[in-house]
Fold this protein.
Amino acid sequence: MIMKFVDKIFEKVGVDKVLHFVVGGWITAKFCESGSFIAAVIGILFVCFISIVKERLDSKYDWKDIAAAMLGCLVELVTWYLIKSIM
């Protein structure tokens, strides 16, 4: 059941967008490990900068890749904040 859901996501948005989402969230998580909100914001800005540079270097500029990376950052930041507020 879960794999069917994951397969549908990959079919709908594509592997590239999912990878941008995951890597954006992962980089933000690494910055959040320090426990500082400022570090988390710096991580998000870093992901935004790297995503824009990467897309400028690609043969086809796709703003949706940047949006997917930033969405990954947002999901990670909200998750980090919720976990931090509970503990």
User: Anything to note?
Assistant: The CA atoms of residues 79 and 85 lie 10 Å apart. The helical segments are 2-13, 15-32, 37-57, 63-86.
